[in-house]
Amino acid sequence: MSGFSFEISKSDSGSDARAGVLTTPHGTVNTPAFIPVGTKATVKSVLPESMRELGAQAILSNAYHLYLQPGPEILDSAGGLSKFMNWNGPTFTDSGGFQVLSLGVGFKKVLAMDETTFRDDDVIAENKERLAHVDDDGVTFKSHLDGSMHRFTPEFSMQVQHQIGADIMFAFDECTTLHNTRSYQEIALERTRLWAIRCLDEHQRLTQARSSKPYQALFGVIQGAQYEDLRRQAASTMGAMESSGISFDGFGIGGALNKSELGTIIGWVNQELPREKPKHLLGIGAPEDLFVGVEAGMDTFDCVLASRIARTSAVYTMEGRYNLTNTAYRTDFSPIDEECDCYTCTSYTRAYLNHLFRGKEILAATLATIHNERFIVRLVDQMRTAIINGDFAELKEEFLGRYKHRSTHAN
RNA sequence: GUGGGCGUAGCUCAGCUGGUAGAGCACUCGGUUGUGGUCCGAGAUGUCGCGGGUUCGAGCCCCGUCGUUCACC
Fold first, then answer.
1. How far apart are CA A219 and CA A388, in angstroms?
2. CA angle, corner A300, sides to A298 and A302, nearest 5?
3. What is the Cα–Cα distance from A106 to A131, expressed in whole angstroms?
């Protein structure tokens, strides 16, 4: 009746990996799946048709960005995000909770994925010129676009996300970093728990008030940083949470995750969450990390990495990643990756891409993004196939053997 | 012809009263994990136009010379 469901079709014998199908009002997603990010209702520089052609099954946008521009009421009037952007397929929206962090403590400074920069007693910046301030009721933002002040509460995030109309929404949470103190993590986690209840309540109210609209699923977000007890507690609490007669349709695993502990942390969370519900690993998408995520039971992923690095010339291949701007590729007339079946690789050479990047041509971003998104989407597709065929472990070993090997070389 | 300015990294230029050269861009190579087409990091690069001179020491001072540019005849 809701139009939303998740079915697990096959489980891996050697790990927690599983293959399934996520059904939404706008179409299905075969899992595990990589969901490309189109923050502002567009995958930067790439046509929706191209995204479909390269195998994308859904697109993830951001409620904070769409709220500021063009405004959720416009998305609502347009018939929802999927139709507005001419994607006409399944969509996700992030709640804007992540922006509490990214705008709050200085963009790109705190999501330390590398343990070498980790310092346990570093306190979150509470004095700097932050664009966001958190309190128990919500978050006050200063727009990065024009400096105007805005306020997000769990209720407001739900209202915005309902207007945007994505098939899968995320609860409004407070994302912390590895730099927060343990005591702050506890405070933030409790706040996220209380906000989750408010999200469920408001979500249920809006679902009933807007019953003529397609059903939108709501995923709760699990925080807890690197602490086992906090992660397990958050997962079991959120997994069992019920309010206004409803529970979460699925879950997102969020927060800053130490790369070397990624699998361990997801593993704790996965053990506590209901097995039958879909799990989305927020913001993770490096090839080697995707194997860890799938192996730990994650069903969907989103990440800006593939498209962001593509815009500055870095591309993935089965042998590792490299930069197309390197001098060596000026006269290299082979494709980015001989084994890739994407539009870019079947039509263009490294030399041409090198030229486009050096000339700062817009097409460079388009072609490189198509390739990288195809590479990641296909990689996760291959994992799904492997799970179904019972040889996930072999795929992982084979891929990582080659990929890491190449990464240690200069070109 | 006369007078003045300028000639320093590939480009645009900094170099205080002389102590054996720097920046930005470009270039080379990394990085970017719920996206501010950004940003960050590392690196390479010079007969300081040329030739003399003064000085312990000259990109800086003096003489000459070449080039360039402006003004005036």
1. 26
2. 120
3. 8
Q: What is the ipTM of this complex?
A: 0.83
Give the residue carrying structure tokens 């590398």: A114
Instruction: Return the closest nucleotide (C1') to the Cα of A365.
Output: B37
Q: How many CB atoms lie within 10 A of CB A167?
A: 26
Q: Which of A12, A289, A302, A337 does the annotation list as catalytic? A: A302
Provide, in whole angstroms, the distance separating residue A44's CA from nucleotide B53's C1': 65
What confidence score (pLDDT) does residue A279 get? 98
Enumerate the nucleotides of strand B whose atoms come under 7 Å of any protein CB.
27-39
Q: Give the length of chain A.
A: 411
Question: What type of residue sits at position A353?
Answer: L
The distance (Å) linking the CA of A358 with the C1' of B13 is 25
| H or E element at residue A305 | helix A305-311
A99 CB closer than 7 A to any strand B atom: yes
- CB of residue A373 closer than 7 A to nucleic acid strand B? no
A95 touches strand B (CB under 7 A): yes
Is residue A387 a contact partner of residue A393, using CB atoms and an 8 Å limit?
no
Distance A407 CA to B62 C1' (A): 61
Annotated active-site residue A302? The verdict is yes
DSSP code for A56: -
pTM attached to this predicted model: 0.91
Nearest to A152, CA basis, from A206, A201, A98, A116: A98
Residue A110 binned pLDDT confidence (cut-offs 50, 70, 90): very low
Active site residue A94: yes
Round to a whole number and report the distance in Å from the CA of A223 to the C1' of B55: 72
Q: Are A67 and A96 in contact (CB under 8 A)?
A: yes
Strand order from edge to edge, sheet including A33-36: A33-36, A300-303, A279-281, A250-253, A217-222, A168-170, A91-94, A59-62
Query: Cα A181 from chain centroid?
Result: 25
Which stretch of A5-14, A255-264, A324-333 has the lowest confidence by average pLDDT? A255-264
Q: Which nucleotide is nearest to A173 (CA to C1')?
A: B34
The residue ranking higher by pLDDT, A105 or A65, is A65
DSSP state for residue A79 in the 8-state scheme: T
Chain A window 69-88: residues with CB closer than 7 Å to nucleic chain B are none
Cβ–Cβ < 8 Å for A91, A26: yes
